[in-house]
Every structure is written in structure tokens, then in C-alpha cells.
Amino acid sequence: MQRIDNVLGAINDVVVAEKIDKAHQRARQIFDDRRTVIRDYREFEDVTSRFVIHQSREAVGGGTLSRSEAIGQASHILNQSRRYGSVNNAYQAAVSGRNGGLPGVLDEMASVFTDISSRNYIRAAIDQYVSPVSWEDRKAIVREIFSRYRHILPADLQNADPDQFANNYSALIEGLADAGRRYGDQLWRNLP
């Protein structure tokens, strides 16, 4: 089995869902806060920081965060939110009960937290098989990808020198995994 097979196996959707997504879903389900709205920003900070601490402990297995670290992470998470886009919009939803109210905010935080954890897991899984500090390791994995998957790479890459992509090996691996997710068996059917 080639090393690229190990990498792709470690970052496939089923593995990521089992190791990351389910843990965050379970953690969200057991976070006990039945309010649909909050009164003020202090209460908002309290709930969202407790939620970050809870998710970190239950889903990520992280150590204890201070309240200020958790508030900072909550802000970061909410600013990355596709649903709310900012702390202010999430706060307005939690105060008014609109756009999902507080439960919607917590659901969205869990979703963003899951995305962040998934990206971190994928990065660590790739690093387990390809040393990010080894030029030779990065060249070797790119050469392996080109050798095995050249025919499914974009046309402008098919005749390129694989070594020129060694600095972008991670993006190449993630792109290959993404193509596998989107096209499944159709993509892998004609492998040499």
C-alpha cells in the first residue's frame, strides 16, 4: 500500500465524521442551557464562554480554558460563522430570539467548532504521514500522487514537474480527498 493511500484513508469523510463530527454533536446535545433568549451581553458572554469550555473538554479533550480565553475563542468562532458572520449578529439573535435565538447561536458555534476541529484533525493526519519540515518527504508524496493520479489531475498539472508542488503538498492531498468525496467510485474506477 502506498503512503498516499494511508493519508487518504486517514482523512476520508467516514473517519473524520466518526472522530470529530460525532464528538461535537454529542457535546452539543449534552450542553445544558434551555434558554431561548438572553438578557444582556454579560449573559451572552457567560453562556458562549461556558459552551466553548464545554465543547473543548467534551469534544476535543482539551484542557481547561480560562474564561477570558473562552470568550476570545467564542468571538473567533462567531466571527467565522456563516449564519451570523459576527459576534454582534449572534448576540442580536440571542437577545431577540430571532434567527434561532440562543439555541441557534449554540448550534452554529458547534458547527463552526466542528469545522475547525476537522481542519485541525486533517492537518495532523497529513503530518503523521508526511513531515511538514522534510523537503524530501514532501517531494516524495507529491511524486507518489503524480505517479498514481496524474490522469485525474487538472490538465495544466498533468505535465508539470511534481517537485514544484512540494510546498503545496497538503493542498494537493486535500484536493485529491475532496475530489474523491465529490466523485466517489467514478473517480477511482480507472486507476492504473
Number of domains: 2
Distance between the termini: 14 Å
Strand content: under 5%
Structural class by SSE content: mainly alpha
Report the sheet with the most strands, covering strand number, pairing sense and barrel closure. none
Number of helices: 9
- Contiguous low-pLDDT stretches (5 residues minimum) are none
Please tally the β strands and state the result: 0
Q: What's the rounded overall pLDDT mean?
A: 91
Q: Which radius of gyration do the C-alpha atoms yield?
A: 21 Å
Q: Helices and strands, in N-to-C order? A: HHHHHHHHH
| Overall 3D form | elongated
Helix content: over 70%
Task: Please provide a written account of the structure.
With 192 residues, the protein is mainly α. It has 2 domains: 107 residues; 58 residues, no CATH class. The chain is 71% helix and 0% strand. The chain has 9 helices and no strands. The radius of gyration is 21 Å and the shape is elongated.
